[in-house]
């Protein structure tokens, strides 16, 4: 017993001694992560109100989300490459201000086409936020500090994803367009970074290489099975959760239970409880369990949460679904990001971060549209049974993924 206790004590000390330092770098990574959330979670509870105010059909309401995520398909890869080539600060600051102002301009939209266009512009600005924050974490932190900061990022995403739907639901109850104005909160983050963010210079080899040589170098590192698998698992999780949970659960609640916006926000926001709990303990979980075990388990929990939706008889039962989504998110997002960045060459961290966010944006773009098309021919029941089935298939895929073995850097 004494030997076991001593081993446990040494493990705890080992896990806690490498916590990230609470300094300006930690603050910038966390605040930038929070700012990147001001385009999705805060808007989701407002979708029923937006649908009614602008006379958008249920089949097309997903474009409010898809228009925001679509530009990332083109701009996220460019952002990563340019940031590695010329520097992160030069790319990040203009993107922050574009994100803030175009998002706030949505309050003036009087028809769906205008709203979709402004969301598209906001999505261009957002392309840098969720890419550079992750690569900055890899630049500033090493070893176990890195997985810890990734867990902080995951916890921040869950806190924001929990609080912002409540805020968005409350604001939408007053006026449909108020949730879009929250993007202005990104402005103080940008102003702070103007004065505090160091210019992270590109690797000397990157500076010396010509553009074509740099692109060939980047492609040679990205074009391998490990990267493709990690991007695919990220995209698979987002495809399942973003269409079925983020976009259409508010509509399911409104159409099935006549839930008001504030209740929708509370239910969606409850995912943060489990998400923060799991993400904050990720470095400890990763010490005792393999990433294969954690990721497979996360997909199974997601499948369970989605499978019960067609059979609930009370709106508050969906808090369980939200908890399942939050818990799976708390494992999957930071784990997959950490594994990819741990494999990434030092001179291509932004490029690798953009690769995983590219998969995320593709899924965020097509999943609401796919779910909307499915709703034309079927019902909410078929939508959620299909989503649960896909999550189960992703769990099976994780069992055989080469990328979830111990990775050796190349």
Can you put this structure into words, describing what you see?
The protein is mostly helical and 410 residues long. It has one domain (20-404): MFS general substrate transporter like domains (Growth Hormone, Chain: A), CATH 1.20.1250.20. It has helices at 2-16, 24-35, 47-53, 63-69, 71-86, 88-104, 112-140, 143-174, 186-196, 204-208, 211-222, 225-257, 261-269, 271-280, 282-288, 291-307, 318-343, 349-377, 380-400. It is globular, with a radius of gyration of 21 Å.
Which labels suit this protein?
mainly alpha, globular
Quick structural summary:
With 410 residues, the protein is an all-alpha fold. The protein has one domain (20-404): Up-down Bundle (Growth Hormone, Chain: A), CATH 1.20.1250.20.
């Amino acid at each position: 017993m004494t030997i076991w206790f001593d081993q446990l004590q040494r493990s705890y000390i080992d896990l806690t001694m490498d916590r990230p330092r609470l300094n300006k770098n930690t603050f910038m990574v966390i605040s930038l992560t929070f700012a990147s959330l001001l385009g999705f979670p805060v808007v989701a509870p407002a979708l029923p109100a937006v649908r009614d105010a602008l006379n958008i059909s249920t089949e097309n309401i997903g474009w409010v989300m898809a228009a925001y995520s679509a530009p990332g398909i083109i701009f996220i890869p460019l952002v990563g490459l340019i940031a590695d080539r010329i520097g992160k600060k030069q790319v990040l600051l203009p993107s922050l201000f574009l994100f803030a102002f175009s998002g706030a301009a949505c309050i003036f939209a009087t028809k769906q086409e205008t709203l979709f266009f402004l969301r598209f512009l906001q999505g261009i600005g957002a392309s840098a936020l969720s890419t550079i924050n992750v690569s900055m974490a890899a630049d500033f932190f090493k070893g176990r500090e890195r997985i810890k900061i990734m867990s902080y990022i995951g916890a921040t995403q869950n806190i924001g994803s929990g609080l912002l739907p409540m805020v968005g639901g409350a604001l939408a109850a007053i006026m449909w367009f108020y949730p879009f104005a929250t993007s202005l909160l990104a402005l103080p983050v940008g102003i702070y970074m103007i004065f505090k963010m160091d210019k992270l210079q590109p690797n000397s080899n990157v500076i010396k290489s010509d553009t074509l040589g740099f692109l060939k170098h980047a492609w040679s590192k990205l074009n391998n099975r490990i990267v493709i698998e990690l991007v695919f698992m990220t995209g698979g999780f987002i495809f399942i959760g973003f269409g079925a949970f983020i976009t259409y659960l508010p509509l399911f609640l409104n159409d099935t239970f006549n839930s008001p916006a504030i209740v929708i926000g509370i239910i969606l926001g409850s995912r943060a409880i489990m998400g923060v709990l799991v993400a904050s303990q990720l470095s400890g979980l990763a010490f005792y369990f393999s990433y294969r075990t954690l990721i497979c388990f996360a997909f199974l929990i997601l499948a369970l949460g989605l499978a019960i939706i067609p059979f609930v008889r009370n709106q508050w039962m969906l808090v369980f679904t939200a908890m399942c989504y939050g818990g799976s998110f708390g494992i999957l997002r930071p784990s997959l990001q950490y594994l990819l960045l741990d494999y990434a060459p030092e001179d291509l961290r932004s490029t690798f971060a953009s690769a995983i966010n590219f998969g995320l944006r593709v899924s965020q773009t097509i999943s609401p549209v796919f779910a909307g098309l499915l709703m034309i021919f079927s019902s909410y029941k078929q939508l959620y049974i299909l989503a649960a089935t896909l999550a189960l298939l992703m769990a099976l895929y994780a069992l055989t993924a080469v990328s979830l073995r111990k990775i050796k850097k190349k």
